[in-house]
Design a protein that fits this description.
- By secondary structure, the chain is an alpha/beta fold.
- The protein folds into three domains: 34 residues, no CATH class; 256 residues, Aldehyde Dehydrogenase, Chain A, domain 1; 188 residues, Aldehyde Dehydrogenase, Chain A, domain 2 (3-Layer(aba) Sandwich).
- Helix content is 37%, strand content 20%.
- Strands 16-17-18-15-14-19-20 form a seven-stranded mixed β-sheet, sandwiched between helices.
- Helix 1 packs across helix 8, helix 2 packs antiparallel against helix 4 and helix 10 crosses helix 11.
- The N and C termini lie far apart (65 Å).
- Bound molecules: NADP nicotinamide-adenine-dinucleotide phosphate and magnesium ion.
- NADP nicotinamide-adenine-dinucleotide phosphate binds next to helix 8 and helix 9.
Length: 506
Amino acid sequence: MGKTRRKTGTTTPRKSRSPRPVRKLKFATDWTYSAAPESTDHVRLESRYGLFIDGKFSEPRSGRYFATISPSTEKKIADVADASTADVGRAVKAARRAFDGTWSKMKPSERGKYIFRIARIIQERAREFAVVESMDGGKPIRESRDVDIPLAAGHFFYYAGWADKLPYAFPCRDPKPVGVAGQIIPWNFPLLMAAWKIAPALATGNTVVLKPAETTPLTALKLAEVIQEADLPPGVVNIITGAGETGAALVNHPDVDKIAFTGSTEVGKIIQKAIAGSKKKFTLELGGKAANIVFEDAAIDQAVEGIVNGIFFNQGHVCCAGSRLFVQESVADDVVRRLKDRMETLIVGDPLDKNTDIGAINSKPQLEKIREYIQIGQDEGAEIYQSSCPLPAKGYWCRPTLFTKASQSHRIVQEEIFGPVLAVQTFRTVEEVIEKANNTPYGLSGGVWTDKGAKIFKITGKLRAGVVWANTFNMFDPSSPFGGYKESGVGREGGLHGLLPYVNLS
Ligand code: NAP
Ligand code: MG
C-alpha cells in the first residue's frame, strides 16, 4: 500500500517587497511512496522492567507496575515499575553511597573514560535506541535516528572531555561536586533529556537518580543497560520509573543536593516552592512560546522550510517550537500561501516509516489538550487551516494546523500548546515585532529570517529569549548552552555553562 504525498510547486518572485498579489503557477503531481518501515527485528525489549538501583534491576517495593504504550498503535509495549517513596529512598541511598565511596574520589580522567564508554555504546546501539524512542514516544524515526540519538551520544562525548579539565572550565577556582542529583525529565526528547542531565553530572563527580516521564520510560531503561555494559560502579546512576508522585518524592527527599528538572512551567513552580528554604541547588528548564520572525528580505522558501521544521516536525512537541509566526506584512500572503502548500506535502503517520514527517501525538491527554486549543483558536476568531492528509485509524494523530488572523490577546498566541499548531500574525516595523515577540510570559527561544546581518544583531540583542536562531531553527549542539528567561526557567544546560549547576566553587 502506498502513501500519497501531493507535491505542489509554486513560482513567485524570491524577494517580494510590495503587497501586490504574486503570480502563482502551480504544478501539482501525485507521488506515491511505498511504505518504508524501519525494521524492529533487532530490538530487544523485556515484557517487564524493574527499577535500576545500585547497578541492577529490582522489583519495586510497592509491587506495582504500569503499562507503557505505543501512541501510534495504542498497544502495550512493556510493563514498567512504579517507584514508591520507599523506592526513591533506596535509589538516593545507593547514589549517596556511590558518591561517598567511589565516584567523587575517582581520578577525573578515569571518570571521563566511563562517560566516553557510555557515548560509544549508545553509538553502537543507535539504531535500536532510535526504534525504541519512536515506538514508545511516537516521534518519526527520521527525528530519533538523525537528531535525538546522535545528540544524546554527542552530549556524553562532549562532557566526557570535560571530566579531567574542570580547572580550565573554572580558572582560579576549586570546583567540587555537589553530591546526589535528582533529575526529572519530560517525554518529548526522552533519551536526549537523560543525556543532558546525566552527562554533566557525572563529569563533575556527582551521582544521579533520574526519573523519566511516565509515557516514555523505555530508552532511559535501555540506557540503564548501557550503564551496566559500561561497567559503571553500582549506584552512580540510578533510574527509577513512576508518575508525578515519584518525581515529587525525589524532589522532597532530604538527602538530594540538587534538582535538575525539565518539564512544564506549572510543575516547575511546584518544585520551586517545594525546595524553597532548603539548601538544594536547582535548574529548571520549562515551557516556551517561541516567536519565529520572517522579514520581507528573507529567503522565503528557506524560511518556510524553517517554519515547518520549527513547529510541525516532532509534532510540535518541542519546548522551543516556533509556535508564533510573525511575518512582515508585505510578504505575509506569499509566506502563508507557500506554507499551506508545504503543509499539504507533509505525511502524518507511522513513526517507524522513514517517509513520515509528523508522527503520533505522545498521549491521549496531550491530543485532547491540543484539540481543545484548536477549538479555542476558532472560538477566539482566528482562521483555521489544516492539511488534508489522511490519518491512520488507530493511534493519536493531529494534522498540521495553521491559524491566521490571530492576535496578541488570543490564548493560542499566549499559551503553550505543545502540538503542531501555528499562530500567524503580521508586523510592519522592527520595533513592532520586537514588542510583540517579547509580549509573552515565556522566553526560551526565537528565530529571525532576514538577508541583513545588522538586522539579525539588532533583533537577537532585543529578544528576551535564551536561544535565538538566525536563518535556521531548532539547531542544537552539545557545546552550546540552552535555557530560558522569565517563566521558561532558571539556569543553563549544555556547553561550559552546563557544568556550573553541578559544582560548588571555592
Ligand atoms: P510535566 O508534566 O511537567 O512533566 C515533566 C516531568 O515531571 C515528568 O517526568 C513528570 O512525571 C514529572 N512530574 C509531574 N509532576 C511532578 C511533581 N509534582 N513533582 C516532580 N515531578 C513531577 O511536563 P511534560 O508534560 O512531561 O513535558 C512537557 C513540558 O516540558 C512542556 O511544557 C515543555 O515546554 C517542557 N520542556 C522544556 C524543555 C526545556 O529545555 N526548557 C525541554 C523539553 C520540554 P510524569 O511524566 O509521570 O507526569
Ligand atoms: Mg509510551
